[in-house]
């Protein structure tokens, strides 16, 4: 099993594996169960624990925690959630606009590996109906090597034709940044495991 990355979903063997820097909210103890996925977030701890976010059934139910790698029993990536268009067509959420948008994108030849995150991804991974009529579509694009804005212009143009608003985060080995901000030019806000940084080149090492 490969090491989970930010935005991956993981499942753990036992809820006792959840560790938190603060007391977890009551809703976690009353309604969260190990059949539900945790989402990997950006953070780091010296002992190598995986930073995760716990999601409830409402928008305000969010909590941060940590799990040891040994407790992970399953990993689902954003890319795998869009790899099978037949699975999307058979999803109980197929009538939702974000899923319709994913089906459209699956038929296109995109230049980089991509996947879905956010509420749409959680719904597809858990079968829990957390999407709403006004839900945006959150996408992730893996881009491990330096690219130019010109390489994304056609993709960005295709996003404007989708039936719902789409937000795209480009993930580099250093962190993630918003595609729309990068295409405007200038510095971008790069989200990393040690916090956000304003950078000109999101592929340049921050430790060099």
Structure description:
There is one protein chain. The protein is an alpha+beta fold and 208 residues long. 20% of the residues lie in helices and 26% in strands. It has 6 helices and 11 strands. The protein has a 5-stranded antiparallel β-sheet, with no helix packed on it. The protein has a 4-stranded mixed β-sheet with strand order 6-7-8-9. A hairpin with a 2-residue loop joins strand 8 (166-172) and strand 9. The longest helix is centred in the middle third of the chain and has 10 residues, at 97-106. It is globular, with a radius of gyration of 17 Å. The two termini are 30 Å apart. The model has no long low-confidence stretch (mean pLDDT 92).
Quick description:
Helix content is 20%, strand content 26%.
Largest sheet: 5 strands, antiparallel
Q: How far is it from the N-terminal to the C-terminal residue, by CA?
A: 30 Å
Number of strands: 11
Residue windows where pLDDT falls under 50 for at least 5 positions: none
Can you give the mean pLDDT? 92
Apparent shape: globular
Class based on secondary structure composition and strand pairing? alpha+beta
The strand line-up of the biggest sheet is: 4-3-2-1-5
**Number of helical stretches of at least 4 residues:** 6
Percentage of residues in DSSP E strands:
25-35%
Percent helix range: 10-25%
């Amino acid at each position: 099993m490969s090491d989970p990355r930010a935005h991956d979903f993981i499942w753990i063997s036992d809820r006792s594996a959840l560790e938190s820097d603060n007391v977890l909210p009551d809703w976690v103890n009353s309604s969260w169960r190990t059949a539900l996925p945790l989402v990997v977030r950006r953070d780091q701890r010296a002992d190598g624990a995986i930073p995760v976010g716990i999601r409830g059934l409402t928008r305000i139910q969010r909590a941060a925690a940590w799990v040891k790698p040994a407790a992970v029993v399953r990993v689902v990536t954003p890319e795998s959630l869009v790899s099978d268009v037949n699975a999307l067509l058979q999803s109980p959420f197929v009538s939702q606009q974000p899923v319709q948008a994913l089906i459209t994108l699956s038929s296109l030849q995109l230049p980089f590996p991509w996947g879905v995150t956010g509420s749409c991804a959680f719904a597809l991974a858990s079968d829990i109906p957390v999407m709403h009529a006004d839900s945006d579509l959150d996408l992730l694009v893996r881009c491990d090597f330096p690219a130019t804005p010109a390489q994304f212009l056609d993709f960005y143009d295709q996003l404007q034709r989708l039936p719902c608003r789409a937000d795209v985060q480009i993930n580099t080995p250093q962190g993630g940044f918003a595609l729309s901000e990068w295409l405007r030019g200038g510095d971008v806000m790069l989200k990393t495991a040690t916090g956000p940084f304003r950078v000109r080149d999101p592929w340049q090492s921050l430790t060099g």
